[in-house]
Protein backbone atom coordinates (compact mmCIF):
# COMPACT_ATOMS: atom_id res chain seq x y z
CA UNK A 1 0.00 0.00 0.00
CA UNK A 2 1.33 3.47 -0.91
CA UNK A 3 2.18 5.59 2.13
CA UNK A 4 0.85 9.13 1.83
CA UNK A 5 2.83 11.95 3.42
CA UNK A 6 2.26 15.70 3.66
CA UNK A 7 5.49 17.76 3.77
CA UNK A 8 5.24 21.32 5.10
CA UNK A 9 8.25 23.65 4.81
CA UNK A 10 8.86 27.15 3.44
CA UNK A 11 12.20 25.93 2.05
CA UNK A 12 11.48 24.84 -1.56
CA UNK A 13 14.82 23.06 -1.94
CA UNK A 14 14.26 21.01 1.21
CA UNK A 15 10.76 20.05 0.05
CA UNK A 16 12.06 18.82 -3.31
CA UNK A 17 14.96 16.95 -1.73
CA UNK A 18 12.86 15.07 0.85
CA UNK A 19 9.99 14.46 -1.57
CA UNK A 20 12.33 12.93 -4.17
CA UNK A 21 13.94 10.66 -1.58
CA UNK A 22 10.59 9.53 -0.18
CA UNK A 23 9.22 8.93 -3.67
CA UNK A 24 11.94 6.36 -4.39
CA UNK A 25 10.85 4.45 -1.25
CA UNK A 26 7.19 4.16 -2.21
CA UNK A 27 5.81 7.31 -0.57
CA UNK A 28 3.22 9.51 -2.25
CA UNK A 29 4.20 13.09 -1.36
CA UNK A 30 2.18 16.27 -1.25
CA UNK A 31 4.02 19.47 -0.41
CA UNK A 32 2.98 22.79 1.09
CA UNK A 33 5.09 25.92 1.54
CA UNK A 34 2.86 27.30 4.31
CA UNK A 35 0.41 26.15 6.94
CA UNK A 36 -2.46 27.75 5.05
CA UNK A 37 -1.58 25.73 1.95
CA UNK A 38 -1.17 22.58 4.07
CA UNK A 39 -4.66 22.94 5.56
CA UNK A 40 -6.10 23.19 2.06
CA UNK A 41 -4.37 19.94 1.08
CA UNK A 42 -5.59 18.22 4.27
CA UNK A 43 -9.15 19.15 3.40
CA UNK A 44 -8.75 17.35 0.06
CA UNK A 45 -7.01 14.22 1.37
CA UNK A 46 -5.93 12.80 4.74
CA UNK A 47 -2.29 11.60 4.65
CA UNK A 48 -0.79 8.76 6.67
CA UNK A 49 1.72 11.12 8.29
CA UNK A 50 2.66 14.83 8.40
CA UNK A 51 6.27 16.05 8.41
CA UNK A 52 6.38 19.75 9.24
CA UNK A 53 9.03 22.40 9.76
CA UNK A 54 8.81 24.46 12.94
CA UNK A 55 10.04 27.86 11.79
CA UNK A 56 7.75 29.24 9.07
CA UNK A 57 6.41 32.76 8.36
CA UNK A 58 2.92 33.84 9.47
CA UNK A 59 2.01 30.52 11.15
CA UNK A 60 4.74 28.36 12.65
CA UNK A 61 4.80 24.59 13.09
CA UNK A 62 3.65 24.70 16.72
CA UNK A 63 0.53 26.67 15.85
CA UNK A 64 -0.07 24.31 12.90
CA UNK A 65 0.02 21.40 15.33
CA UNK A 66 -2.44 23.18 17.67
CA UNK A 67 -4.84 23.73 14.77
CA UNK A 68 -4.76 20.01 13.91
CA UNK A 69 -5.31 18.96 17.53
CA UNK A 70 -8.42 21.11 17.70
CA UNK A 71 -9.95 19.46 14.63
CA UNK A 72 -11.25 15.91 15.09
CA UNK A 73 -10.66 15.21 11.40
CA UNK A 74 -6.91 15.72 11.75
CA UNK A 75 -5.91 15.27 15.38
CA UNK A 76 -5.03 11.57 15.00
CA UNK A 77 -2.73 11.98 11.97
CA UNK A 78 0.82 11.07 13.08
CA UNK A 79 2.78 14.33 13.22
CA UNK A 80 6.57 14.72 13.07
CA UNK A 81 8.51 17.99 13.45
CA UNK A 82 11.37 18.46 10.97
CA UNK A 83 13.50 21.40 11.98
CA UNK A 84 16.95 22.82 12.61
CA UNK A 85 15.74 24.14 15.99
CA UNK A 86 16.47 20.98 17.93
CA UNK A 87 17.20 22.40 21.39
CA UNK A 88 15.76 20.50 24.35
CA UNK A 89 13.07 23.08 25.19
CA UNK A 90 11.73 23.19 21.63
CA UNK A 91 11.68 19.42 21.40
CA UNK A 92 9.82 19.13 24.71
CA UNK A 93 7.19 21.62 23.54
CA UNK A 94 6.59 19.64 20.37
CA UNK A 95 6.35 16.29 22.10
CA UNK A 96 3.93 17.75 24.66
CA UNK A 97 1.64 18.46 21.70
CA UNK A 98 1.52 14.73 20.91
CA UNK A 99 4.02 14.86 18.07
CA UNK A 100 5.30 11.34 17.55
CA UNK A 101 8.90 12.47 16.94
CA UNK A 102 11.36 15.26 16.20
CA UNK A 103 13.84 14.99 13.29
CA UNK A 104 16.80 17.33 13.00
CA UNK A 105 17.35 18.78 9.51
CA UNK A 106 21.01 17.83 9.76
CA UNK A 107 19.96 14.15 9.67
CA UNK A 108 20.99 12.49 6.38
CA UNK A 109 18.03 12.16 4.02
CA UNK A 110 18.20 8.35 3.83
CA UNK A 111 17.94 8.20 7.64
CA UNK A 112 14.94 10.53 7.58
CA UNK A 113 13.21 8.13 5.19
CA UNK A 114 14.09 5.13 7.39
CA UNK A 115 12.78 6.91 10.48
CA UNK A 116 9.46 7.76 8.83
CA UNK A 117 9.11 4.17 7.63
CA UNK A 118 9.78 2.90 11.15
CA UNK A 119 7.20 5.28 12.62
CA UNK A 120 4.51 4.14 10.19
CA UNK A 121 5.40 0.46 10.68
CA UNK A 122 5.13 0.86 14.46
CA UNK A 123 1.76 2.59 14.13
CA UNK A 124 0.56 -0.15 11.78
CA UNK A 125 1.58 -2.88 14.21
CA UNK A 126 -0.16 -1.11 17.09
CA UNK A 127 -3.26 -0.73 14.94
CA UNK A 128 -3.23 -4.42 14.02
CA UNK A 129 -2.80 -5.38 17.67
CA UNK A 130 -5.76 -3.18 18.67
CA UNK A 131 -7.91 -4.66 15.91
CA UNK A 132 -7.02 -8.17 17.03
CA UNK A 133 -7.78 -7.46 20.70
CA UNK A 134 -11.08 -5.72 20.01
CA UNK A 135 -12.05 -8.38 17.47
CA UNK A 136 -11.30 -11.10 20.01
CA UNK A 137 -13.42 -9.34 22.63
CA UNK A 138 -16.30 -8.88 20.19
CA UNK A 139 -16.05 -12.54 19.18
CA UNK A 140 -16.13 -13.64 22.81
CA UNK A 141 -19.26 -11.57 23.39
CA UNK A 142 -20.75 -12.80 20.09
CA UNK A 143 -20.94 -9.23 18.79
CA UNK A 144 -21.11 -9.05 15.00
CA UNK A 145 -22.25 -6.24 12.75
CA UNK A 146 -22.02 -8.56 9.73
CA UNK A 147 -23.12 -12.23 9.69
CA UNK A 148 -20.84 -15.13 8.87
CA UNK A 149 -23.12 -16.20 6.01
CA UNK A 150 -26.56 -15.57 4.54
CA UNK A 151 -29.41 -18.00 5.30
CA UNK A 152 -30.83 -20.39 2.71
CA UNK A 153 -34.26 -19.35 1.44
CA UNK A 154 -36.17 -21.66 -0.87
CA UNK A 155 -36.53 -20.22 -4.42
CA UNK A 156 -34.19 -17.32 -3.57
CA UNK A 157 -30.46 -16.81 -3.35
CA UNK A 158 -29.12 -14.36 -0.74
CA UNK A 159 -25.52 -13.14 -0.91
CA UNK A 160 -23.57 -10.19 0.45
CA UNK A 161 -20.17 -8.50 0.27
CA UNK A 162 -18.56 -6.36 2.94
CA UNK A 163 -15.25 -4.51 3.02
CA UNK A 164 -13.77 -2.29 5.71
CA UNK A 165 -11.78 0.84 4.94
CA UNK A 166 -8.05 0.39 5.57
CA UNK A 167 -8.92 -2.53 7.89
CA UNK A 168 -10.75 -0.23 10.33
CA UNK A 169 -14.20 -1.40 11.44
CA UNK A 170 -16.89 1.04 10.41
CA UNK A 171 -20.59 1.75 10.78
CA UNK A 172 -21.99 -0.62 8.14
CA UNK A 173 -24.17 -3.46 9.42
CA UNK A 174 -25.93 -6.39 7.72
CA UNK A 175 -28.37 -8.96 9.01
CA UNK A 176 -30.84 -11.58 7.77
CA UNK A 177 -33.78 -12.45 9.99
CA UNK A 178 -35.82 -15.47 9.01
CA UNK A 179 -39.10 -15.30 10.91
CA UNK A 180 -40.68 -18.37 9.25
CA UNK A 181 -40.24 -20.57 6.16
CA UNK A 182 -42.04 -18.00 4.03
CA UNK A 183 -40.63 -14.71 5.35
CA UNK A 184 -37.08 -13.40 5.60
CA UNK A 185 -36.06 -9.84 6.45
CA UNK A 186 -32.91 -8.31 4.99
CA UNK A 187 -31.27 -5.50 6.97
CA UNK A 188 -28.58 -3.17 5.63
CA UNK A 189 -27.55 0.00 7.42
CA UNK A 190 -24.80 2.53 7.98
CA UNK A 191 -24.24 4.45 11.22
CA UNK A 192 -22.98 7.96 10.51
CA UNK A 193 -19.45 8.51 11.76
CA UNK A 194 -16.03 6.96 11.37
CA UNK A 195 -14.16 3.92 12.57
CA UNK A 196 -14.56 2.79 16.20
CA UNK A 197 -17.45 5.07 17.21
CA UNK A 198 -19.66 4.08 14.28
CA UNK A 199 -18.69 0.41 14.69
CA UNK A 200 -19.69 0.47 18.36
CA UNK A 201 -23.09 2.03 17.70
CA UNK A 202 -23.82 -0.41 14.87
CA UNK A 203 -24.37 -3.15 17.49
CA UNK A 204 -26.92 -0.97 19.32
CA UNK A 205 -28.85 -0.25 16.15
CA UNK A 206 -28.83 -3.91 15.16
CA UNK A 207 -30.16 -4.92 18.58
CA UNK A 208 -33.10 -2.51 18.26
CA UNK A 209 -33.81 -3.62 14.70
CA UNK A 210 -33.75 -7.34 15.49
CA UNK A 211 -36.03 -6.87 18.49
CA UNK A 212 -38.43 -4.59 16.61
CA UNK A 213 -38.77 -6.99 13.68
CA UNK A 214 -39.46 -10.02 15.87
CA UNK A 215 -41.90 -8.15 18.12
CA UNK A 216 -43.77 -6.70 15.14
CA UNK A 217 -44.03 -10.10 13.44
CA UNK A 218 -45.26 -11.57 16.73
CA UNK A 219 -48.01 -8.89 16.74
CA UNK A 220 -48.91 -9.66 13.12
CA UNK A 221 -47.08 -6.69 11.56
CA UNK A 222 -44.73 -7.54 8.68
CA UNK A 223 -44.72 -4.30 6.67
CA UNK A 224 -41.14 -2.91 6.43
CA UNK A 225 -42.49 0.66 6.49
CA UNK A 226 -44.47 0.01 9.70
CA UNK A 227 -41.48 -1.67 11.32
CA UNK A 228 -39.22 1.23 10.27
CA UNK A 229 -41.63 3.67 11.92
CA UNK A 230 -41.43 1.75 15.19
CA UNK A 231 -37.63 1.50 15.05
CA UNK A 232 -37.37 5.22 14.34
CA UNK A 233 -39.58 6.19 17.27
CA UNK A 234 -37.49 4.03 19.62
CA UNK A 235 -34.26 5.61 18.35
CA UNK A 236 -35.67 9.13 18.73
CA UNK A 237 -36.58 8.43 22.37
CA UNK A 238 -33.22 6.85 23.21
CA UNK A 239 -30.98 9.48 24.92
CA UNK A 240 -27.82 7.99 23.38
CA UNK A 241 -28.88 6.78 19.93
CA UNK A 242 -31.06 9.83 19.40
CA UNK A 243 -27.89 11.82 18.69
CA UNK A 244 -26.47 9.20 16.32
CA UNK A 245 -27.86 9.14 12.78
CA UNK A 246 -28.13 6.02 10.66
CA UNK A 247 -29.39 4.94 7.28
CA UNK A 248 -31.38 1.73 7.01
CA UNK A 249 -32.55 -0.43 4.13
CA UNK A 250 -35.22 -2.89 5.26
CA UNK A 251 -36.54 -5.51 2.85
CA UNK A 252 -38.90 -8.42 3.40
CA UNK A 253 -38.80 -11.45 1.13
CA UNK A 254 -42.23 -13.07 0.75
CA UNK A 255 -41.36 -16.41 -0.81
CA UNK A 256 -44.94 -17.54 -1.53
CA UNK A 257 -45.82 -14.29 -3.33
CA UNK A 258 -42.39 -13.97 -5.01
CA UNK A 259 -42.16 -10.40 -3.77
CA UNK A 260 -39.69 -8.15 -2.00
CA UNK A 261 -41.23 -5.38 0.11
CA UNK A 262 -38.87 -2.46 0.62
CA UNK A 263 -38.71 0.62 2.83
CA UNK A 264 -35.70 2.84 3.45
CA UNK A 265 -34.47 5.48 5.88
CA UNK A 266 -32.12 7.92 4.18
CA UNK A 267 -30.53 5.11 2.19
CA UNK A 268 -29.42 4.92 -1.43
CA UNK A 269 -31.96 3.64 -3.99
CA UNK A 270 -32.11 -0.14 -4.31
CA UNK A 271 -31.47 -1.52 -7.79
CA UNK A 272 -33.89 -3.94 -9.48
CA UNK A 273 -32.78 -5.94 -12.49
CA UNK A 274 -35.59 -7.51 -14.57
CA UNK A 275 -34.38 -10.57 -16.46
CA UNK A 276 -37.32 -10.58 -18.88
CA UNK A 277 -36.79 -7.00 -20.07
CA UNK A 278 -33.11 -6.61 -19.26
CA UNK A 279 -33.93 -3.24 -17.67
CA UNK A 280 -32.39 -1.84 -14.49
CA UNK A 281 -34.60 0.33 -12.25
CA UNK A 282 -33.51 2.40 -9.25
CA UNK A 283 -36.13 2.52 -6.51
CA UNK A 284 -35.69 5.48 -4.19
CA UNK A 285 -37.05 5.49 -0.65
CA UNK A 286 -38.75 8.57 0.76
CA UNK A 287 -37.92 8.10 4.43
CA UNK A 288 -35.59 10.23 6.55
CA UNK A 289 -32.48 9.05 8.37
CA UNK A 290 -33.24 7.22 11.60
CA UNK A 291 -33.43 9.50 14.62
CA UNK A 292 -34.23 12.85 12.95
CA UNK A 293 -38.01 13.11 13.51
CA UNK A 294 -40.47 10.77 15.18
CA UNK A 295 -42.46 10.72 11.93
CA UNK A 296 -39.86 9.44 9.47
CA UNK A 297 -42.29 9.49 6.51
CA UNK A 298 -41.52 5.87 5.65
CA UNK A 299 -43.32 4.33 2.71
CA UNK A 300 -43.19 0.96 1.06
CA UNK A 301 -42.47 -0.34 -2.42
CA UNK A 302 -43.39 -3.82 -3.63
CA UNK A 303 -40.97 -5.46 -6.08
CA UNK A 304 -42.38 -8.45 -7.95
CA UNK A 305 -39.63 -10.99 -8.51
CA UNK A 306 -39.72 -13.15 -11.64
CA UNK A 307 -37.17 -15.96 -12.07
CA UNK A 308 -33.71 -14.48 -12.66
CA UNK A 309 -34.62 -11.06 -11.25
CA UNK A 310 -32.12 -9.44 -8.89
CA UNK A 311 -32.38 -6.74 -6.21
CA UNK A 312 -29.20 -5.01 -5.03
CA UNK A 313 -28.92 -2.82 -1.92
CA UNK A 314 -25.75 -0.85 -1.08
CA UNK A 315 -24.27 1.52 1.48
CA UNK A 316 -22.76 4.84 0.44
CA UNK A 317 -19.20 3.50 0.54
CA UNK A 318 -19.97 1.72 -2.74
CA UNK A 319 -20.39 5.01 -4.59
CA UNK A 320 -17.37 6.74 -3.04
CA UNK A 321 -14.08 6.59 -4.88
CA UNK A 322 -10.84 8.50 -5.33
CA UNK A 323 -10.74 10.54 -8.52
CA UNK A 324 -8.28 13.03 -9.96
CA UNK A 325 -9.69 15.74 -7.72
CA UNK A 326 -9.87 13.66 -4.54
CA UNK A 327 -12.84 11.84 -3.03
CA UNK A 328 -15.91 11.69 -5.27
CA UNK A 329 -19.38 10.19 -4.80
CA UNK A 330 -21.40 9.23 -7.86
CA UNK A 331 -24.34 6.84 -7.69
CA UNK A 332 -24.94 6.95 -11.45
CA UNK A 333 -21.38 5.85 -12.28
CA UNK A 334 -21.76 2.94 -9.86
CA UNK A 335 -25.11 1.84 -11.31
CA UNK A 336 -23.77 2.00 -14.86
CA UNK A 337 -20.83 -0.18 -13.89
CA UNK A 338 -23.00 -2.61 -11.92
CA UNK A 339 -25.52 -2.94 -14.75
CA UNK A 340 -22.91 -4.66 -16.90
CA UNK A 341 -22.66 -7.44 -14.29
CA UNK A 342 -26.33 -8.05 -13.55
CA UNK A 343 -28.34 -10.94 -14.98
CA UNK A 344 -25.30 -13.14 -15.46
CA UNK A 345 -24.89 -16.68 -14.14
CA UNK A 346 -22.08 -15.60 -11.83
CA UNK A 347 -23.16 -12.05 -10.91
CA UNK A 348 -21.95 -12.37 -7.33
CA UNK A 349 -18.51 -13.63 -8.34
CA UNK A 350 -18.12 -10.95 -10.99
CA UNK A 351 -19.07 -8.16 -8.55
CA UNK A 352 -16.65 -9.58 -6.01
CA UNK A 353 -13.87 -9.80 -8.59
CA UNK A 354 -14.36 -6.35 -10.10
CA UNK A 355 -15.40 -4.31 -7.05
CA UNK A 356 -14.06 -6.11 -3.97
CA UNK A 357 -10.71 -7.50 -5.12
CA UNK A 358 -7.37 -6.53 -3.59
CA UNK A 359 -6.60 -4.44 -6.66
CA UNK A 360 -9.54 -2.12 -5.85
CA UNK A 361 -8.50 -1.42 -2.23
CA UNK A 362 -6.58 1.74 -3.18
CA UNK A 363 -9.79 3.38 -4.38
CA UNK A 364 -11.80 2.49 -1.26
CA UNK A 365 -12.42 5.52 0.97
CA UNK A 366 -15.08 4.17 3.34
CA UNK A 367 -16.37 0.84 4.57
CA UNK A 368 -18.85 -0.52 2.05
CA UNK A 369 -21.48 -3.21 1.77
CA UNK A 370 -23.64 -4.80 -0.89
CA UNK A 371 -26.52 -7.27 -0.59
CA UNK A 372 -27.93 -9.33 -3.50
CA UNK A 373 -31.38 -10.91 -3.54
CA UNK A 374 -31.96 -13.15 -6.55
CA UNK A 375 -35.04 -15.13 -7.56
CA UNK A 376 -33.75 -18.49 -8.74
CA UNK A 377 -34.53 -19.73 -12.24
Please characterize this protein's 3D structure.
This protein is of the alpha+beta class and 377 residues long. The protein has 2 domains: 3-138, Rossmann fold (3-Layer(aba) Sandwich), CATH 3.40.50.2300; 156-375, PPM-type phosphatase domain (Phosphatase 2c, domain 1, 4-Layer Sandwich). Helices cover 34% and strands 26% of the residues. The protein contains 9 helices and 17 strands. The strands form 4 sheets. It has a 5-stranded parallel β-sheet with strand order 2-1-3-4-5, sandwiched between helices. A 5-stranded antiparallel β-sheet has the order 6-17-14-11-12, with no helix packed on it. A 5-stranded antiparallel β-sheet has the order 7-8-9-10-13. Strand 15 and strand 16 form a beta hairpin. The protein is elongated, with a radius of gyration of 25 Å. The two termini are 42 Å apart.
Overall number of domains: 2
Helix content: 25-40%
- Through-space gap between termini: 42 Å
The gross shape turns out to be: elongated
Strand content: 25-35%
CATH class of the largest domain: Alpha Beta
**Going across the major beta sheet, what is the strand order?**
2-1-3-4-5
Q: How many extended strands? A: 17
Structure class: alpha+beta
Report the major sheet: 5 strands, parallel
Here the CATH topology of the largest domain equals Phosphatase 2c, domain 1
Mean pLDDT: 86
Order of helices and strands: EHEHEHEHEHEEEHHEEEEEEEEHHE
* CATH architecture label of the largest domain: 4-Layer Sandwich
What is the C-alpha radius of gyration, as a whole number of Å? 25 Å
CATH superfamily of the largest domain: PPM-type phosphatase domain
Uncertain stretches: none
Amino acid sequence: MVKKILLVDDDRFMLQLICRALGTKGFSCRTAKSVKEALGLLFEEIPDIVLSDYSMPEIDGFEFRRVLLRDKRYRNIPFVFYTSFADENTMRQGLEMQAVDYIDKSTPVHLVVSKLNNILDTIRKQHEKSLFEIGAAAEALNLRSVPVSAPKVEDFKLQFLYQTYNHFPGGDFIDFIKTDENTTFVVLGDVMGKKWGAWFFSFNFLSYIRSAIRLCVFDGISSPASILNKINRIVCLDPVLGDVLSTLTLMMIDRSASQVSYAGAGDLPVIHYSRSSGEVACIRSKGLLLGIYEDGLYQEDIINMAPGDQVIAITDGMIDFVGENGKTSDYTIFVNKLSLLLGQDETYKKIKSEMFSESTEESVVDDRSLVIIEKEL
